[in-house]
Amino acid sequence: MFPAADDRRFRTPATGSERQLLHDMLRAQRNTLKLKCSNVEDQLARRAVPPSTLSLLGLIRHLADVERRWFRQVLAGQHAPPLFSSPTNPDGDFDDAVPDPAVVAAARRAWHDEIAFADTFIATADSLDVEGHDSWRGTVSLRWVLVHMIEEYARHNGHADLLRERIDGTIGM
Q1: What is the distance, to the nearest Å, from the Cα of residue 100 to the centroid of all Cα atoms in its chain?
Q2: How many CA within 13 A on the CB side of residue 1?
Q3: For the chain, is the Cβ count within 10 Å smaller at the N or the C terminus?
Q4: Residue 58 pairs with which residues in a beta bridge?
Q5: Of 13, 11, 9, 4, which Cα lies nearest the Cα of 29?
Q6: What is the dihedral angle through the alpha carbons of 24, 103, 51, 39, rounded to the nearest 10 degrees?
Q7: What is the pLDDT of residue 1?
Q8: What is the largest CA-CA distance in the chain?
Q9: How would you write 15-84 as a 3-class SS string?
Q10: What is the pLDDT of residue 46?
Q11: CA proximity to 150, closest of 18, 24, 11
């Protein structure tokens, strides 16, 4: 029920700069989702409880779009439409998460690409006070986005706990 002794996800320093602490916590949450999605390739698209479309693959696709939105669109000001959803298919990140190896590979690649962009943005930003404009929240700072992303991953990692247990009985990872 508890993480293994060699699990390093949350063994980052508890002191240091605010940027480093927030970035470390976000990395730990990302690594938690990665762990929960490991070694179940053929079952990543398995639904939670039909007719729900919630799946581990859907979570990967959703979080790729969330990373993309906050770091590319809002903070970097790039034109970067969502990869897995659209105005005509707002739940495409979950609804279209099907057990096709190409779909799984594309989702993993997109998620890793968005994380790499976000990590570079976080590391090179002038400060946590860098701002962007969001149609939902208005003006937001990098600091707010980091806190929000930690919350977003933590919430969805709870979903991933339940999904993984349903797939193969694994708990406490």
Answers
A1: 21
A2: 0
A3: N
A4: none
A5: 9
A6: -60
A7: 43
A8: 46
A9: CCCHHHHHHHHHHHHHHHHHHHCCCCHHHCCCCCCCCCCCCHHHHHHHHHHHHHHHHHHHHCCCCCCCCC
A10: 87
A11: 24
pLDDT number for residue 48? 80
Amino acid letter, 140 = V
**Contact (Cβ atoms closer than 8 angstroms) between residue 9 and residue 28:** yes
Letter string b/e over residues 159-168, b meaning 16 or more CB atoms within 10 A of that residue's CB: bbbebbebbe
Nearest C-alpha neighbor of 77 from the set 38, 117, 107: 117
Q: 84: how many CB neighbours lie within 10 A of its CB?
A: 23
Per the listing, tokens 């919430």 go with: 155
Residues 6+ apart with CB under 8 A from 118: 67, 70, 71, 149
Helix (H) or strand (E) holding 119: helix 101-124
**Which tokens go with 104?**
């799984």
Ordered per-residue pLDDT tens for the chain, 173 residues: 445 555 666 677 788 899 999 999 999 999 999 999 999 988 888 888 788 899 999 999 999 999 999 999 999 999 999 999 999 999 999 999 999 999 999 999 999 999 999 999 999 999 999 999 999 999 999 999 999 999 999 999 999 999 999 998 888 77
Q: What is the pLDDT of residue 57?
A: 97
Contact 72, 81 (CB under 8 A): no
